[in-house]
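Please fill in the sequence for the structure shown.

STRUCTURE ENCODING:
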């Protein structure tokens, strides 16, 4: 079976867009100014829900939040710019509408990816939001420009309710009891630096890793929808990582 974490020949626009959704910590949020109707852009921290839906934690004291309260339509630019010409590095522009998210899953997923936000997450003026995606435009370098439908960008969670329900406990268990293995995932399978890597979330397609400001994404060999298949998926990654030591 082919390793999904090994780069294959060709270019997979959906896979690249999904990776950006999961591994980009900051984005530019464009809203419509409530006073003038013109565009207004600001910097926001981002995370991803289980299906990849962008999550935000924003304050009513911020202009962008007041704009969204008047008109929820918005756009979110997620970019990963390295050295050299920034136009050759990947980015996605996501369009949609912002909806307040009062559920614990949105809170947990956001704070797992953005732990520093726990300091102000409970302030009375802050609230979590989901960006209900209506469109996505990927620019991944010259000649790699693709519009992606929401049904392709976001993961299908049908038949994955068991996995979603056990995700908090699974993530806690892996981070508490398998710290060395998680580090092997990052160093051996992703080629990242050594350190106290942790799993921030799991979903039917893969798992997300974090170390300080770094983020990584690993894919399962096949779709995961239950606690049993999740354990198998983690064991498979562990075997692959140890084989590369």
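FILLED IN BY: designer on duty
SEQUENCE:
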């Amino acid at each position: 079976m082919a390793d999904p974490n090994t780069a294959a020949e060709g270019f997979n626009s959906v896979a690249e867009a999904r990776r950006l959704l999961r591994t980009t910590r900051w984005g530019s949020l464009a809203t419509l100014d409530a006073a003038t109707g013109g565009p207004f852009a600001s910097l926001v921290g981002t995370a991803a829900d289980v299906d990849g839906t962008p999550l935000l934690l924003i304050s009513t004291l911020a202009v962008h939040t007041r704009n969204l309260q008047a008109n929820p339509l918005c756009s979110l630019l997620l970019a990963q710019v390295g050295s050299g010409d920034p136009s050759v590095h990947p980015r996605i522009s996501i369009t949609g509408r912002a909806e307040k998210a009062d559920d614990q899953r949105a809170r947990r997923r956001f704070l797992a990816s953005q732990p520093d936000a726990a300091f102000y997450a409970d302030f009375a003026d802050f609230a979590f939001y989901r960006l209900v995606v209506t469109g996505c435009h990927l620019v991944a370098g010259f000649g790699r420009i693709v519009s992606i439908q929401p049904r392709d960008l976001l993961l299908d969670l049908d038949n994955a309710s068991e996995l979603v329900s056990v995700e908090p406990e699974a993530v806690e268990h892996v981070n508490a009891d398998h710290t060395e293995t998680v580090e092997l995932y990052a160093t051996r399978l992703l080629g990242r630096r050594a350190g106290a890597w942790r799993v921030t979330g799991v979903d039917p397609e893969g798992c997300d890793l974090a170390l300080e400001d770094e983020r990584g994404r690993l894919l399962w060999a096949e779709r995961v929808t239950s606690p049993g298949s999740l354990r198998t998926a983690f064991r498979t990654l562990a075997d692959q990582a140890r084989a590369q030591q």
